[in-house]
Design goal:
Blueprint lengths: L2 H11 L5 E4 L4 E5 L13 E5 L2 E5 L3 H6 L11 H13 L3 E3 L2 E5 L5 H16 L6 H19 L5 E5 L12 E5 L6 E6 L2 H17 L4 E6 L7 H10 L2 E3 L6 H11 L8
Parallel strand pairs: 9-10, 10-11
Antiparallel strand pairs: 1-2, 2-3, 3-4, 4-6, 5-6, 7-8, 8-9
């Protein structure tokens, strides 16, 4: 099919503003009016592969999302489900980060329409509501600690069964170490920070000797007075999970004893 005919089909099925610009042999940049949240346009390329035409984002969509998200977070929890559903619904192949759609039976316009819809749906992971984000943060946190610490050392949702049989003072993650346990709190809002502060104060009253760590979703969003009270009782803090994974892992490994592996 001639390129002019393909462009006409794109305009007819998708939008009159679609344009094709050549970028070499059998390769065209597809300009559309569709954009990410920050105003950048979706990246779409029409190219020939093995005697057939395909649409590709050439890895741009995932790269764009990692401006604000850790790449590993795209592959787990709620975000991973959103992406997987979009790929399945629109028959998109994920080739190590490059999203590709084959064009069946000269259905160029239909293929571009589906491809754009898939990219926009995947981009929606950056639009998650605060409730969905909190859910994803906890999933990311749990997945991270479980990947770094063996099951025999790790206890999620721990409380002292002797002093607190009803579980009023809960630690998100307890990690046993040779000297004293490490209590890690996942902190996504002011209420969680206040609860963690009260829990640590109660442990002080009970004489529980421990290391304590707070891992925030976004520390700068926490009320300054709430954060100040928590800082008085917590030994170590990390402002967010995404950019501190390596630091958290090293901190935990060092506490477990002379650089020994956490696993």
């Amino acid at each position: 099919m001639a390129v002019e005919t393909i462009e006409h089909d794109f305009k007819r099925k998708v939008c009159e503003k679609v344009r094709l610009y050549p970028e070499g042999v059998d390769r065209y940049r597809v300009f559309t009016p569709f954009m990410f949240e920050d105003g950048d346009h979706l990246a779409v390329v029409l190219k020939r592969e093995n005697e057939r035409w395909v649409l590709s984002d050439e890895g741009n969509t995932y790269m764009h999302l990692t401006y604000d998200l850790d790449e590993r977070d795209l592959r787990q929890g709620t975000r991973d489900k959103i992406i997987a559903n979009a790929l399945s619904a629109f028959s998109i192949d994920d080739r190590d980060g490059e999203l590709v759609a084959k064009i069946p039976d000269d259905q160029y316009g239909d293929a571009l329409y589906s491809f754009v819809q898939a990219l926009l749906r995947i981009a929606d992971v950056s639009y998650l509501s605060r409730e969905r984000v909190r859910s994803t943060f906890l999933q990311d946190f749990n997945g991270f600690v479980q990947s770094k610490v063996s099951g025999t050392r790790l206890k999620l949702g721990w409380y002292d069964p002797e002093r607190d049989p009803e579980g009023n003072y809960v630690v998100d993650c307890r990690i046993d170490s040779p000297r004293k346990p490490l209590f890690v709190f996942a902190l996504q809002n002011d209420d969680r920070v206040q609860t963690a502060t009260i829990t640590l104060l109660q442990f002080e009253r009970w004489g529980i000797d421990c290391h304590s760590v707070g891992v925030f979703e976004e520390q700068e969003l926490v009320n300054r007075k709430v954060l100040a009270r928590f800082s008085d009782v917590c030994e170590k803090q990390f402002s967010n999970l995404a950019s501190n994974r390596d630091r958290i892992s090293k901190y935990v490994t060092d506490l477990l004893g002379n650089g020994a592996s956490a696993e």
